[in-house]
Structures are given as structure tokens and as C-alpha cells.
Design brief:
The chain is built from 24 helices and 15 strands. It is an alpha/beta fold. The protein has three domains: 73 residues, no CATH class; 295 residues, Rossmann fold (3-Layer(aba) Sandwich), CATH 3.40.50; 231 residues, Up-down Bundle (Four Helix Bundle (Hemerythrin (Met), subunit A)). The protein starts with a strand and ends in a 42-residue tail after the last helix.
């Protein structure tokens, strides 16, 4: 019984009875309005076609088969070499596959232009990847599924680029009743190829345009959609065959490259793996199954295809392969018979090859009990079911992923803004950009930025770090006496005394030395200012990230104006910092309450000297000579000449005549040594000099700390006033004054060509994703309704389709089973 849309044909013995019904009638209610036709007996094993009658220019062909086959064949092959009528997309049983798979195909076509490494290329859409070694029969399997010769063939590598093959069931138009088949390439949109030989030539030409003519390979896809009433909705990816030895201009690592390409497809969880292996080789060493095992260790998404069953050695068969006893796969195996090279050379039709395949499996005593595992029709049915169920499983996750990408794309589109046309719109846009820019600058300084980073310090936090962790700590580590030796201090003291000997601890050398240390604060203070300036420049670039991409001229103008503005703020800050250092140097405030003072310094120095003398006892020669009767020298009124003053009293009263007499008695002339060109104090220092050095160091450190605290406090205030807060207060008014001019609108708001292109592409992506999500919502409703009426087989996870025997879903145990016969009771009403 064959049920069509308007007619029902029932094979009754040697007659074919024709029924015509109205759209509201079920197949069982159809009236036999037309005569019965007796068909001729035929012993031919091939399926014949015979014209029956003509009605309104619509020619109907009745499929006639030998009576001997009528009991075992519930599904006949179309005259054009296609798939069983009962499995066509017109059947309600495959409504999910008919709606979902074309949608996935459409999504693949839509996302194909964005597959160059972008975010959308990460979306994993369900598809079937066909893998196998070179010349394993992949191309023959694909052509048999389509029912047409359209793939490049040869003894060498044929598939040199991934071919995404989208099979789409196209019902026969009711008005013409003529089946149309065509192919359409994504790189040639709108151009239909009705001649499948031209499709083959275009595949070859497109391959050679990318990789040349000498066996090179590439991972760039060729996308081909074939529409036909004789195919089921399936999406296949024909990948290059695994090869071992490079030929032509193939690189030496061709095998590794092809394996990497294949793994990039089959590693995706949404990909069904169709592993093609020839029956005349050991299945345990199959390259296709080995790679499938790597990507799918559980074998839950791998289908095995055993080809070339008809050319196995005599006495051998592939039953153990098909039953999964050698390499088990959860989705099982399907055995097929390929056309030989001789058949291809003789242009043998696919229909004849399918009939030969059916005859081979029917006549072979080892395979006639494995009818659900043999033949191209069974493979097509299995692929359609598994892909349909796989899509049904991943549908919720796919929708969530599309929603996530839609949110990201909409956000990206908002960064490109709208197209600006009039002068008024340009002025509003420019003013908003300047205002938002300054607001972003201020919020980043104040720590109120919405794009606050958790990875690094930004904005005001970096400036605070510069002040407290770099500038303040660096000044605290400075020792004013680190590079000042005792000899340097003695030299300074003696130079300050001039012709006199010091009676007190001299004040002049202290001021000279402390001014030198104060001057050292200038460089780090100016360096701190430079750090803050650099940070503000960095912030200015971060605040205009969006506009920098959209308006390059505005970016250039902003960089220029903001740079000038900040440099103008640096100049008064530099002058103020310099003045601060000069002010500290101009007046040494020895009356500062925190200053140690001379008396305390002398007291500390004496204590330090006593402690050093106690630890190192002095000899008589090293011990200083006391003045008068005091046991301790008075360092506030020291002796100028020491013991020389007391021992020279008698000689002062000597007469000049005695002196002359002495000279006469010693007539030799005493020669003095000339003073050296560079004169340093003697290495040995007196106790008074030791105390003076200690006191000077104490006073230097004390006053240095006072000045350091002043600088640490005032320099950040100067920078904040003249640079940072000045920017927050006056930047917007400066930008408006410099840039907000009508004659500059068009120049500054000129968009980059790249931005225009990206806006257009992003809008298209938003539109595409919205349509895809809307369509998936409708499909989810269909899936829900189908799920309530069609159960899931617990052994395989495949959805049961009405009219198909349950053994299709079960794991075959080798029992003899016949092909299921579709009866009127299993055909849904209204089909």
C-alpha cells in the first residue's frame, strides 16, 4: 500500500487499485473512482516503472514489482534512485527532522561568514562528519545518499577541502507534479545547478582556487545544499581522507594536518561521527574508528559504515563487524555496497546500484537476516533519526548559547551607535561624547567607574599608590648622612671657620650641608609629578575606548587637546614644587619645635663619645689634655690652641737678642714644605672634632626629617591642585571650547570604514540570531508535542517513529529479521 497526498495505491495480487480522496478523507475512506490496472508479471529483479494514466497534465508513475517481492518489500525505491517513500519528509513521523535539520542548516549558512575565529564560530551546531581513509568509499556513500553523481572521483586524494553537504527534502510541487533537484553553493548565492555534472566541476574549481591543482589540502569549507524530493534532511561534512604518504605539493606532515583538521570537527560534542571503513581490511586497524575512539571514547555518537561488502574474499563476511563484536559502537553499524570503478566509468545509475545492493543483501544468506543493518536506505533512515534526535537533545543548550551570543552582539552593536545624518544630530552626539568622556574620567579618578577591574589598580587608585607607596616611602628611605663622610664634615667645618678656630659648634657648615640635602628632594618630587601625568594620559585613552574605534579624527583631536591641557597643568605644578624646595632652602628654621637643637645635640654627642671611650680605653698619648682644673672640657668654650698656649709663656718673654744669637749659633736654613694643591684635613682628628662631627650629623638628620615631612605632605597637594582636580574642574569646558564647533562636526564624526562594516555585520547578526531563537521556540513546541506522542527507546535513546519496527532501535543480536512492512494501520491520518 503506497499512500500519496491525493491518491492511494494498493497492490492486490496482480492488480493495482487506485483510490482518489478529498482532503478531508482518510486513506481508508477513499473511493475507488478510477479503474484497476493489471500489471504485467516480471521476473526481473530490478524495480520497473510503468506509466499509468494522465490527469490534468500530471503524469503519475506506478511502481511495479514482482509478486515474489511484494511480501518482503514494504518500501520501494523511487525510480530516480532516491529513498523510500515511507521515509520522505512528507511523513508526519519525520516532522521534527523536517523542521529542525533545515533550521540547523540555515544557521550553519548564516554563521559560516563569521567562522573565522570570532565568537559565533564557537557555536557548535549538530552535524554529521564523514571520516575515513583515502579511497575507503566515502564519496560513494554520499552519492548513494543523494542519488546522484556529483563528487570528484579518482584514484588519488579526491576530497581536499571539507565539503559541508546539506541534504534538504524538497516536496514535489502539487501544481506541476514534476520533481526538481538542484544544488546551490554558499559562495555562489542564488545560482542553482540543475546539472549535477556542473556541481562536480564547480567543486573541483573551487578546490583548485584555494589549494591549487597538485593535491594540496585546506581546512576552508565548501558549502553545498542539495534540494531534492528523494533525500532525507541530513547535514554531512565530507572531510579529506586520511593519507600516509605525501604526494604532489602536499607537505611532509600531511597526515598530521589532516588528522588535526578531522579532530577539530569530531571533538565537538554536537558532532555525529560517521566512520567509514572498508570490509576488506581489518576493522581493528581502521584509521576512522581509531580517530573516532579518541574523540568519542564511549562510542555514544559514532556510527560505523562498512563499505565494499561485495568484494570481500570468498568464504568471509562482515557479520561480526555489523553486529559490533569486533569494535562495539552504541549506535551500531550499517553495511553498504559501493559502485565499482567500472560502474562509475560506465555511468551506471545510482538506481541500478541501489537495486543491485538490495539484491545482494537479499540473496546473501549471511546478510538477509540483518536487513536493519544493511543498505543505503537503512543508513539514510538511521542518520536522519539520529541527527534528528541529537538536535532534539541539544536544542535547549543551543538556544541558551544563541541567547548568550545575542546579548553580547546587541551590546557590541550599541558601541557602534546609530548613523548620524543631520548637523543637529552631529552636535548632540558630539556634546554627549564629550560629556560622557569627562564623566568617565572623573568617575575613574573617584573610584566610581562601572567597569571596575578586579585584576589591577586603575585610575585614582594608581595615583594614590604613586603618592603613598612610591613617593612617600622613597623619601623615608633617604639617609642624609649616607653619602657624607666624617672627612667631608670636618672639611666643611674648617672651611666655615676660615682664619679662626671654632669656639662653638659652627652653624654655617650645618646650614650648608642641610641645604644640599634639601635640594635632593627636588628630583623625586618632579618625578612624582611626571608619574601622575603619565597616569592621567593613560586614563584619557581608557575613557575613550569606544569613540577611538568609531571616530578616528575625534580620537586624534581628543588626544591632542587633552594632552595640551594636561601639559599646561604640569607647568604650574613644576613651578610650585620648585618654589617649595627653594622656600625650605631659603630659611633654616632652627627654632622649629621638632628640631633637636644644639644643646641636646651636644649632650647626645657627649653620651655617644663616653660610650665609645668606655668600650675603647684610651692611652696617655691618645687621651685629650684637660683645660685648667676641670676634669671635662667645656665644648661650648673650647681651647683654641690646647696645650700649646700654656707651654709657650716663657718663650714669649725671651729677648730678641737671644733669638738672634740662637740663629747665629745655628746658621743652617730651615726649608718648609709647600702646601699641596688639594689640601684635606689631617687623618687624625681631635676629640673636639669628633664631637663636632657627631653633633652635625644629629642636627642634619633632625632637620632633614622636618623638611621631608613637609615635602611628603605638600607635593601631593600641589599635584592634586594644579593637575588632577584642575582636570576634573575644567576639562569639559576646555573640550567644548576647542572641539564643539559646527564647522568641525563632519570632520570629527567621520566614521572608519571598518566601523561601518562592523555595524552592518553586527545588525545582520542580531537579526539572524533573533530569527534563529524565534524559530527554535517554535521547534521546541513541536518537539514537546511529538515527545508526548512518541516515546524514547530506552536501549538506544532514539525517538520511535510510527510505522517503523522496534528492532530498528534495539541492539541487534544477530537474529533473522525481515524488513518492516508499512501497513495502513501504522500510517498517521492526514498524511
Amino acid at each position: 500500500k503506497i499512500v500519496l497526498q491525493k491518491y492511494t495505491f494498493i497492490l492486490e495480487g496482480d492488480k493495482v487499485r487506485i483510490y482518489r480522496r478529498t482532503p478531508h478523507q482518510s486513506p481508508d475512506q477513499a473511493n475507488p473512482t478510477y479503474r484497476s490496472l493489471r500489471h504485467k508479471e516480471t521476473q526481473s529483479l530490478f524495480i520497473k516503472t510503468k506509466p499509468c494514466f494522465s490527469l490534468s497534465k500530471t503524469v503519475i508513475f506506478i511502481l511495479c514489482v514482482p509478486r515474489s517481492l511484494s511480501s518482503t518489500m514494504g518500501q520501494q525505491v523511487n525510480s530516480t534512485g532516491g529513498l523510500p517513500k515511507s521515509l520522505s519528509a512528507d511523513s508526519k513521523s519525520s516532522s521534527i527532522g523536517s523542521s529542525v535539520i533545515p533550521i540547523v542548516n540555515r544557521l550553519q549558512d548564516i554563521l559560516a561568514p563569521f567562522g573565522g575565529g570570532g565568537e559565533l564560530s564557537k557555536i557548535q551546531l549538530p552535524q554529521v562528519a564523514v571520516i575515513g581513509s583515502q579511497s575507503s568509499g566515502k564519496s560513494s556513500v554520499l552519492e548513494a545518499l543523494v542519488g546522484r553523481d556529483f563528487l570528484p572521483r579518482g584514484c588519488d586524494i579526491c576530497t581536499r577541502r571539507p565539503l559541508v553537504l546539506q541534504l534538504e527534502n524538497q516536496p514535489i510541487p502539487s501544481d506541476s507534479g514534476v520533481a526538481r533537484e538542484w544544488g546551490e553553493f554558499l559562495h555562489l548565492p542564488g545560482k542553482r545547478f540543475y546539472n549535477f555534472c556542473k556541481i562536480r566541476r564547480e567543486i573541483q574549481a573551487e578546490t583548485e582556487r584555494e589549494v591549487g591543482v597538485n593535491k594540496g589540502v585546506s581546512d576552508k569549507q565548501i558549502r553545498l545544499k542539495i534540494s531534492s524530493p528523494n533525500v532525507l534532511n541530513i547535514t554531512l561534512v565530507d572531510l579529506p581522507g586520511i593519507t600516509k604518504v605525501p604526494v604532489g605539493d602536499q607537505p611532509t606532515d600531511i597526515e598530521a594536518r589532516i588528522r588535526k583538521m578531522i579532530m577539530s570537527y569530531i571533538n565537538q560534542e554536537a558532532c555525529i561521527i560517521l566512520a567509514v571503513s572498508p570490509a576488506n581490511s581489518d576493522l581493528a586497524t581502521s584509521d576512522a574508528l581509531q580517530m573516532a575512539k579518541e574523540a568519542d571514547p564511549a562510542g555514544s555518537r559514532t556510527i560505523g559504515v562498512i563499505t565494499k561488502l561485495d568484494i570481500m574474499d570468498r568464504g568471509t563476511n562482515a557479520c561480526n563487524f555489523l553486529l559490533g563484536k569486533v569494535v562495539p559502537l552504541r549506535l551500531g553499524y550499517v553495511g553498504v555496497v559501493n559502485r565499482s570503478q567500472e560502474d562509475i566509468n560506465k555511468n551506471r545509475e545510482i538506481a541500478e546500484a541501489l537495486a543491485y545492493e538490495e539484491q545482494f543483501f537479499r540473496d546473501h544468506h549471511m546478510y538477509n537476516g540483518l536487513s536493519d543493518r544493511c543498505g543505503i536506505p537503512q543508513l539514510a533512515k538511521k542518520l536522519n533519526q539520529i541527527l534528528e534526535q541529537h538536535i532534539r537533545t541539544v536544542l535547549p543548550g543551543l538556544k541558551a548559547e544563541l541567547n548568550s551570543h545575542l546579548v553580547a552582539v546587541v551590546k557590541e552593536l550599541s558601541t557602534y551607535g546609530e548613523v548620524i545624518e543631520s548637523k543637529a544630530e552631529q552636535g548632540v552626539v558630539l556634546l554627549n561624547i564629550l560629556r560622557k568622556y569627562c564623566e568617565a574620567f572623573s568617575t575613574m579618578l573617584d573610584g566610581r567607574s562601572q567597569e571596575m577591574s578586579t585584576k589591577e589598580l586603575i585610575g585614582g587608585a594608581r595615583i594614590h599608590h604613586i603618592f603613598q607607596s612610591i613617593f612617600v616611602k622613597s623619601l623615608e628611605e633617604v639617609d642624609p648622612c649616607k653619602d657624607l663622610t666624617d672627612d667631608d664634615i670636618r672639611t666643611a667645618i674648617q672651611n666655615a671657620n676660615g682664619l679662626r678656630n671654632s669656639l662653638f659648634v659652627p652653624e654655617v657648615p650645618f646650614e650648608v650641608l642641610v641645604k644640599v640635602q634639601i635640594a635632593r628632594f627636588l628630583d623625586p618630587s618632579l618625578q612624582c609629578l611626571r608619574f601622575v601625568y603619565d597616569e592621567l594620559i593613560r586614563m584619557s585613552h581608557a575613557c575613550e575606548a569606544t569613540e577611538r574605534q568609531r571616530f578616528p579624527m575625534l580620537r586624534k583631536c581628543l588626544d591632542e587637546v587633552v594632552g595640551i591641557f594636561l601639559r599646561d597643568g604640569v607647568k604650574p605644578a613644576e613651578r610650585m614644587i620648585t618654589k617649595l624646595i627653594e622656600m625650605e632652602m631659603d630659611y633654616i628654621n632652627s627654632s622649629h619645635p621638632n628640631f633637636l637643637g644644639g644643646n641636646k645635640a651636644v649632650e647626645f654627642a657627649m653620651q655617644q663619645l663616653k660610650s665609645s671611650q668606655g668600650s675603647h680605653p684610651q692611652t696617655n698619648n691618645d687621651r685629650p689634655v684637660p683645660v685648667g682644673n676641670s676634669s671635662t672640657r667645656s665644648w661650648s668654650m673650647p681651647s683654641v690652641f690646647g696645650s700649646r698656649a700654656s707651654s709657650g709663656g716663657s718663650s714669649a718673654n725671651r729677648s730678641s737678642s737671644e733669638t738672634v744669637n740662637d740663629i747665629k749659633e745655628n746658621p743652617s736654613i730651615i726649608q718648609l714644605k709647600e702646601p699641596p694643591f688639594i689640601l684635606r684635613p689631617p687623618e687624625s682628628q681631635t676629640e673636639q672634632e669628633t664631637v663636632e662631627i657627631i653633633v652635625t650629623k644629629l642636627l642634619l638628620r633632625s632637620y632633614h626629617n622636618i623638611v621631608r615631612k613637609n615635602i611628603q605632605d605638600l607635593v601631593p597637594k600641589v599635584i592634586m591642585h594644579f593637575l588632577v582636580n584642575h582636570t576634573k574642574r575644567d576639562l569639559l569646558s576646555t573640550l567644548i571650547q576647542k572641539l564643539y564647533s559646527e564647522n568641525l562636526y563632519e570632520e570629527m564624526l567621520q566614521e572608519q570604514d571598518e566601523v561601518v562594516i562592523k555595524r552592518k555585520q553586527t545588525r545582520e547578526m542580531v537579526h539572524v540570531l533573533e530569527q534563529a531563537i524565534q524559530t527554535l521556540d517554535e521547534v521546541e513546541a513541536d518537539v514537546s508535542s511529538q515527545s508526548s506522542s512518541s516515546g524514547i527507546d530506552t536501549s538506544t535513546g532514539l525517538r520511535r517513529i510510527p510505522g517503523l519496527s522496534s528492532h530498528l532501535y534495539s541492539k541487534s543480536n544477530g537474529e533473522n529479521k525481515s524488513l518492516p512492512c508499512i501497513s495502513s494501520s501504522t500510517i498517521p491520518k492526514g498524511t
